[in-house]
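About this split. The held-out portion is used to measure sequence recovery: a designer receives only the structure tokens and must propose an amino acid at every position. Recovery is the fraction of positions where the proposal matches the reference. Here is one held-out target exactly as it appears in the evaluation file.
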């Protein structure tokens, strides 16, 4: 619809038309009132003009219907914008359940993308058409912001925590991706492209040139190499909690509060383990701050995600009883 106007990027995701429709509604409402006020000012200036320098205007004692109208009409318009925008916003920030997970890191001055199957790419992101894709990312240095104009989604990359965006590409092709937060001299060069491919072509691309196996496999290797497995035993007999079935579940802490075990909590527990200690355990775990790259941390997180006891098995039952 707007492809003739170069001001607007292509609509290449399910969210794009929804964001645009809201945007154009707000522009239309604003334009309508701006034009209406201007026209009325001009008409009245002409109609009520006088050459008499001593002319005095008629006294006005207010008008209840008029005042009600200019209060209620803007109120209704604002509420419509608020409700509509909330609807779009909730869809924007809540990824669907089954998404294709991709990790990314922003650093001066590039975006590094990492697929679960082990593919890495820099300033380029390949995604399949028609799939819900979630990109989870952080920054290695300063604030950046990952922006996909054609998908109408954007979020800041913040050092020390994970952000995420999700989108469902609806159009094949290559689109821009940007850093949308000023981050230093080469901020303007921190750009790249996202390539939307047919699912079959994406699979072929994904399997071509994988080194080192999948992310969770690398995580498992690290988990053993770093001796995490000596404390975090799967049967729960170690000095640290068993990590089986932990991901996505609530975790009670020594201070009585409860957190959900998500990517950020696992990352924090690896880098600053003393901060939120699982209830029933001593703060024995050493920090791995400075010892692990962001990629390695993510490999460990992916490995923790795969630790699932088969339902009804002995270790699952032991887990339930803890
Ligand atoms: Cu990174 Cu601007």
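Reference sequence for scoring:
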């Amino acid at each position: 619809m707007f492809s003739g106007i170069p001001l607007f990027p292509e609509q290449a995701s399910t969210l794009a038309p929804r964001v645009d429709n809201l945007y154009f509604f707000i522009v239309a409402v604003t334009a309508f009132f701006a034009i209406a006020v201007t026209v009325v000012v001009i008409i009245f200036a002409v109609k009520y003009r006088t050459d008499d320098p001593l002319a005095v205007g008629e006294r006005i004692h207010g008008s209840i219907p008029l005042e009600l109208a200019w209060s209620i009409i803007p109120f209704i318009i604002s509420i419509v914008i608020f409700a509509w925008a909330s609807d779009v916003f909730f869809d924007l920030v809540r990824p669907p359940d089954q998404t294709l997970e991709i990790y990314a890191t922003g650093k001066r001055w590039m975006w590094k993308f990492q697929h679960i199957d082990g593919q890495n790419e820099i300033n380029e992101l390949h995604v399949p058409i028609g799939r819900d894709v979630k990109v989870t990312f952080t920054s290695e240095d300063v604030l950046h912001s990952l922006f996909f104009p054609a998908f109408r989604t954007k979020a800041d990359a913040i050092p020390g925590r994970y952000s995420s965006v999700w989108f469902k590409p609806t159009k094949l092709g290559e689109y821009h991706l940007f850093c949308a937060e000023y981050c230093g001299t080469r901020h303007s060069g921190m750009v790249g492209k996202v390539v939307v491919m047919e699912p079959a072509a994406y699979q072929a691309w994904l399997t071509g040139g994988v080194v080192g196996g999948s992310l969770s496999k690398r995580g498992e290797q690290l988990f053993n190499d770093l001796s995490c497995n000596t404390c975090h035993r799967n049967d729960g007999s170690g000095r640290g909690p068993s990590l089986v079935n932990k991901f996505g579940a609530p975790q009670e802490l020594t201070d009585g509060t409860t957190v959900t075990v998500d990517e950020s909590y696992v990352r924090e527990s690896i880098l600053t383990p003393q901060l939120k200690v699982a209830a029933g355990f001593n703060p024995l775990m050493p920090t791995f701050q400075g010892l692990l790259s962001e990629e390695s941390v993510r490999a460990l997180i992916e490995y923790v995600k795969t630790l699932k006891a088969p339902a009804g098995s002995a270790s699952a039952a032991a887990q339930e009883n803890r």
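Annotator remark: The longest strand covers residues 100-107.
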